[in-house]
Amino acid sequence: MTRRPRMSAPVRKSTARRPAAVLPVVIAIACAGCGSTAASSSPTAPPTRSSSSTTTAQSTTSVTTTSAAAVGTSSTTGAALPGTGRPPITIGDKNFTEQFVLGELYQQALQAQGFTVGLNRNIGPTDVTLQALKTGSLAMYPEYLDVFATAIARESHGFPSRAAAYTAAQRYALTHGLELLAPTRFSSTEAIAVTVGYAETNHLHTLRDLDKVAGTLTVGGPPQFQQGDPGLATVQQRYGFTAAGYKTLAVGDQYTALNNDAVQAADVGTTDGQLASGNYRLLGDPEHLFGWGNAVPVVTPRVLELEGPVFADTIDRVSALLTIPVMRQLNQAVDVAGQDPATVAKQFLETHGVIEPGPQ
């Protein structure tokens, strides 16, 4: 089960993947929708990315991890690719499934444009990551908007919209030697899920509707969700209900517990691969208690200048493809079907014309 860790909790590793025979994954998704109300993300365009004003300098970045460099010329025209000759860089991701997929998507798309890109799959704590960006040992990594706004920019209040959260985060970034590229269309946050059958029987659509079933409602989730902020205590206070009970569950067991009626509602992630089955409903969060979890690639103005405009354009192109249904399918391919993140990313990018299909 792919889950973003809570900001105060240690990073969770992804669940073990099954080797050998796996299911083919259907990732040719062109859905413009954003899934449930609880997980929706506005397509409002973010503020315009600022232009760098520093003069070009010798690169100090270096490739620290694997992956071969992309071919330096176009296979169809023979013309040099835009990334050819640019300084080699390392991009990174965090240590769980969804981030593994994001890292592969961005790396492979950049390599297809001729950039020499290494991938660090475990960039460490936030303070270490920010220092790596400033020293140039890391060129880019995808952060989540609410994490950047609260844990990095130290904004203590909630935001009424994704655009407001992005504006606050970008304002901080630009005054601290960083820059945010365009956010993804998916928002990865916590949410409360029920089975479709339970929702239809009890006419449940948003978290406000849980007062209808509160007397017999058992909510399941990890220990920190019971009293965390945001967590069940916050949700109950804001939406005016008190659940009859709480059942502590290991991460990944929520869906089994829902299926077996051991709990009637559970703390889940909006981009969990299990949600791609269509068997569950996320209850809408009209107060946006769980925040705005769009992924935002974090870079520095220096990297943008050294790598040229196609670098940011390529990353933005990938981000624009990533809706909630897409991300659930990609996570399902890794966590449920057992495929490798690199393979899943390659299939997706080929399907959407970002990279040319390789030999069969």
Would you mind describing this structure in some detail?
- By secondary structure, the chain is α/β, with parallel strands linked by helices.
- The strands form 3 sheets. The chain has a 5-stranded mixed β-sheet with strand order 7-6-8-5-9.
- The longest helix is centred in the first third of the chain and has 16 residues.
- The radius of gyration is 21 Å and the shape is globular.
Descriptive key words:
12 helices, 360 residues, three-stranded antiparallel sheet, alpha/beta
* Poorly predicted segments: 7-73
Instruction: Specify the structural class.
Output: alpha/beta
Radius of gyration: 21 Å
Number of strands: 10
Overall mean confidence score, pLDDT: 84
Largest sheet: 5 strands, mixed
How would you sum up this structure in a few lines?
The chain is α/β, with parallel strands linked by helices and 360 residues long. Helix content is 32%, strand content 11%.
List the topology elements.
Elements: E1 89-92, H1 97-112, E2 117-120, H2 126-135, E3 141-144, H3 145-152, H4 162-174, E4 179-180, E5 190-195, H5 196-202, E6 218-221, H6 223-227, H7 232-239, E7 245-248, H8 254-259, E8 265-269, E9 280-282, E10 295-299, H9 301-307, H10 309-321, H11 324-335, H12 341-351
Helix pairs in contact: 1-10, 1-12, 3-4
